[in-house]
Amino acid sequence: MNDEDGQYFYHPLENIEETDIFYEAIGREHLTKSITSERPYTYWTIELYDQRDGIRGGGGLGVLAADTRRVADQMSVPFVLITPFYPSESHQLLRDRTIYDKQIKVDYKKFGFKHIDKVTIKTRSGLCNLDVIEKRFNTTRILSVTEPNFGELYSNTSGSDHRLYQEVSLGFGGYAALKLVGLKPAIIHLNEVATFFAALARLDELASNGMDFYEAVVYTRKHTLYTNHTLVQAAEAEFSYSQFEEFVFPNLKSLAVKKWLSDKFVNEKIRLSSVTIEIAELRSGVSKLHARVANYHDIAGSKVKFKAITNGIDLKNWMLPNLYNYYQEIGLIDQYGLPSKNYVDVLPSIDADAIKKFKKDGRNSLNSILKNRPDQNNNILRFNTNDYIFDFKRRFADYKRPDLPFTDITRLKNILEPRGAHYIIAGRVHTGDQNMLHKLYALLSKIDQDDYLRTHVHYLSDYDEELAYGLSCGSNTSINIPIVGLEACGTSWMKDVANFDILISTHDGGVADASINSYLNVSGNDESEELDMLYQRMEESISIWENDYDLEYTIKTQLKNFLPIISGARMMKDYLDYLFPK
Questions:
Q1: How far is Cα 579 from Cα 582, in angstroms, rounded to an integer?
Q2: Strand (E) positions, 396-456?
Q3: How far apart are CA 207 and CA 377, in angstroms?
Q4: What is the spatial distance between Cα 509 and Cα 502, in angstroms, rounded to a whole number?
Q5: Spatial distance between the Cα atoms of 91 and 103, rounded to a whole number of angstroms
Q6: Fold of the 19-312+573-579 domain
Q7: Which residue from 173, 532, 533, 548 has the highest number of Cβ atoms inside 10 Å of its Cβ?
Q8: Quick one: residue 462, left, alpha or beta (phi over 0 = left, psi -120 to 50 = alpha)?
Q9: Contact indicator for 157, 163 with CB cutoff of 8 Å
Q10: Contact of 506 with 484, CB cutoff 8 Å
Q11: What sign does the CA torsion over 288, 289, 290, 291 have?
C-alpha cells in the first residue's frame, strides 16, 4: 500500500459495525473449510508471553502470540492458541553487578487453567504422558500441553534433544489435545519453525486414515500458514537423523510420511525451516522489508517468497486505558482497534495539552511499576512530570546496538545534562550470549565512572511485559537503532507510537513500512555517521517536547503513518484476507 512517494495509505473495510458484517466482507474461496467454533483458526507457538495468564515467554515472539489471541477474541474470531506450559519460568536479575538467571516454579492451576485429560507421545525409549490444560475466553482459548520435566522455555541449546522433545510435544501432543477437545483445525498457523510438528501430525493423520499420500500433502499444504520471524536460514540450528529416530519417527503411523520426511535430510542433518517451507503453501513475513530480504530456500534451492503481513499489537492491552478510550471517543479507531475510515481527518483534534495530560498519566503509571524495580545501584526510581526520559527497551542483542549511544560519553552528557534528562536501559541478555553479557558489564562500568551518568542512566533488569508497558506510557522518547537489514519487525516501538512517545529509529523492520519522514530517522553511510545523527535526533526530541507546535506535529505525523501499521486488528484482518482472499 505504498504510493510512488513511499507514503503509506490504509484502506480499511467500509461500514464495519458488527462482527458478522466483518466476516461477510471477507471472502472464503481459498480454504475448503470456513472458520467456525468447531473448525477454529489454530495458532501454534513455542512461546507465549502473557503474564496475566501466568505464562512468561522469552521475548517478542511470545508477546506477539498473546496479542494475536487477544485481538482475535476482541474480533470474535474462533481461535485456539496451542503452546507448551512450562512449569519453570526464567527471571534475569542483577545483583552486585552480576547478571544471573533465576528459575521459579509456576502452577497452571493458579492462573485459571483447567485440567482436561492426558495425551501420549512416543519416543524410541518409551511413552511420555502430557497433561492437557486449557483456559477459555470469549471465542478463543489457550490449549496447552505440559509435564513436570518440561523445564523452562528455551532450555538447553537449540539443537539439543530436550529442545526437540519440547517441540515434538507441542506438535504431536498439541494436535492430539486438539482432537481430545473435539476440534479440527480450519487452518494451522505455524508461528516459526519450532511448531513444524503440528503440520506433520496432521499430514500423518490424513495419510494413515486412508487419504492418498499426495492428496494428503496437497491438503495439508493448502491449510498451513508458516510465519517466519528471522532473516537468515543459515543461522538456524540443525537436528540429526538419529534425533528424529528417537523423538519424531515413533509418532508417525504412515510409512509414506516417514519416507517423505526422511528424504528431506541432507548428510544426516535437517533444518526445520526446509521442511516447514515444504509443508506450508502459505508463507508470510512479519514486515514489508522482511518479506523482501528474508533469505530462505526450499529443498530444490529456489528462493522462497513470503507474503508481507506486518506484526501488530493489541492496542487495548498496551495503551493507557484512558488514552485508548480517548482514541475511540474522538473516532481515531473503531470498536476492533482498526483505524477508522477518516482517522486522518480526526488527527487535528489532538493538541499538545492532551498529549501532555496523557503523558503525565503515563508517568504516574511508570512510577507505580518502578516501586519494585531497583536500578543497577539498587535505587528505587521516581520521576517527576517534568523529568525528561529517553528509553532503550528491547532484547539486549548485538544488532540492536544498546551501547551505541554511549560511544561518546562527553557528547551524550552534553545532551542529557542541560535538561536533567534520564536514560533508561531495559532488556534481557539471551541465556548463553557471553558476548552481550560482557558488553552489558562494560556498559555498566562506563556509566559508573561518570558522576552524572551514574545518577541519570538506569539499567533495569528482568525486563518483562509490565516494565515494557510502563516505559511506553511514561517515557518521552524511545530509541530503536538496529543495524538496518537485521530486524524482522520489532513491536516495542509500536507501543511507543501508540502512547505518544517520540520515536528515534533506523529505517528497519516494521518501522520501514512507512517513509523515513514518519519519525526521527537515524541513517548514515557508516556507524560513525549514524551515531552523529542519533545525537542530533536526541537533541531534537528534547526541543520538540518544549514547543507545543512541534510536539503536535511530530505526534500526529507518527500516528498518521503508523497507526494502520501497528494495529493488531489490521494484522488479523490481513491474515484473514490472505487465507480467504476475495
A1: 10
A2: 422-426
A3: 61
A4: 17
A5: 6
A6: Rossmann fold (3.40.50)
A7: 173
A8: left
A9: yes
A10: yes
A11: positive
What's the predicted TM-score (pTM) here? Answer: 0.93
DSSP label of 430: P
Contact predicate 307/285, CB 8 Å: yes
What is each CA distance from 144 to 38, 79, 121, 134, 251, in whole angstroms? 18, 14, 14, 6, 19
CA 174, distance to chain mean position in Å, is 21
- In order of 238, 245, 255, 559, the CA distances from 262 in angstroms are 14, 10, 10, 50
Question: In the structure grid, which three cell numbers stand for residue 8, read together?
Answer: 503509506
CATH code, 344-566: 3.40.50.2000
The torsion angles phi and psi of 65, rounded to 5 degrees, stand at -60, -45
Query: Residue 540 belongs to what H/E stretch?
Result: helix 527-545
Residue range 435-493, pLDDT digits in tens: 999 999 999 999 999 999 999 999 999 999 999 999 999 999 999 999 999 999 999 99
Give Rg (Cα) of the chain: 24
Helix pair 548-566, 568-579: axis angle to 10 deg: 30
Residue-by-residue DSSP string for 40-107: -EEEEES---BGGGTB--SSHHHHHHHHHHHHHHHTT--EEEEEE--SEEEEEEEETTEEEEEEEE--
The pairing of strands 502-505 and 520-521 is parallel
Domains 19-312+573-579 and 344-566 are alike in CATH topology: yes
Rounded distance between C-alpha atoms, residue 287 and residue 503, angstroms: 18
Tell me how far apart the alpha carbons of residues 362 and 377 are, in angstroms, rounded to a whole number.
24
Task: Extract the C-alpha cell encoding 209.
Answer: 486414515
Q: Tell me phi and psi for residue 521, to 5 degrees.
A: -80, 140
Domain extents in the chain: 19-312+573-579, 344-566
**Each residue's pLDDT tens digit, 319-374:** 999 999 999 999 999 988 999 999 999 999 999 999 999 999 999 999 999 999 99
